[in-house]
From TrEMBL:
Keyword Translocase: no
Domain of life: Bacteria
Protein name: DUF1003 domain-containing protein
Transmembrane segments: 113-136, 148-170
Keywords: Membrane, Transmembrane, Transmembrane helix
Name of one Pfam family that matches: DUF1003
Keyword Transmembrane part of the UniProt annotation: yes
Length: 236
């Protein structure tokens, strides 16, 4: 049985001919990507074919176009996500652990003071201290060191508030920085998950293409068998 030449198709984008296994029919291209191709190539139709190099290029352009419409431009974070997607990198990391390791001594001290100042042990111990101070100077001592109206106690409380307020503000600034970094990290992970899902859709399209190619090969074999049968059929 004579072997028929391998079927070839012309790419509508680069106008080069490829084997049938190296092109994808327009009917199997995602509609959004197909619309983008149609904007630049008006001759694009459902009967056309596109090579995989041009198809991957337009898929990348489509992803960048989607990101650009959402943010106005592809930001640095999104570029990092696209790069990690291309290089198969993992974005998940322990942001809290990294920030804890990068703290200076002053930052650790501010966090500890703010944490203790906003806890029940501090509130209870401070209440006990006030009760003892007032009780000693009102009832228990014949010569109180801070008689009513407790000027020394007011001075101590004012100094404590003056010191505690900036420390709490420093801790809040660090917490705000943590929240911002955590939000950026979550955004990168969510964006990569979305791109991975789109990549899975592209792989499904590829599987459909391969299945279509196998069916086409089977059809070509059937046509060859029919041609052979027609040629060898006895004439009446």
């Amino acid at each position: 049985m004579s072997k028929r030449p391998a079927a070839r198709r012309r790419c509508e984008i680069c106008q080069k001919e490829f084997a049938i296994v190296d092109v994808m029919p327009a009917a199997f291209v995602r509609q959004a990507v197909s619309d983008l191709i149609l904007e630049q190539h008006p001759a694009w139709s459902q009967e056309a074919y596109i090579c995989f190099n041009d198809l991957n290029r337009y898929r990348t352009l489509y992803v960048e176009d989607v990101l650009g419409r959402e943010r106005g431009e592809v930001s640095k974070l999104e570029s990092e996500v696209v790069r990690s997607l291309r290089e198969q990198e993992l974005l998940a990391e322990n942001v809290a652990g990294i920030m804890e390791n990068d703290r200076t001594f002053g930052q650790r001290l501010a966090d500890q003071i703010a944490s203790f100042g906003g806890s029940w042990p501090f509130l209870i111990s401070f209440g006990v201290f006030l009760c003892c101070w007032i009780g000693l100077n009102v009832r228990l001592l014949f010569q109180p060191f801070d008689p009513f109206p407790f000027i020394l106690l007011n001075l101590i409380l004012s100094c404590l508030a003056a010191i505690q307020a900036p420390v709490i503000m420093m801790s809040q600034n660090r917490q705000e920085s943590k929240d911002r970094i955590r939000a950026e990290h979550d955004y990168r992970i969510n964006l990569k998950a979305e791109l991975e899902i789109r990549h899975l859709h592209a792989k499904l399209d590829m599987l459909l293409t391969h299945q279509w190619q196998r069916l086409l090969e089977i059809q070509e074999i059937q046509m060859e068998l029919m041609d052979e049968f027609t040629r060898h059929r006895p004439q009446k």
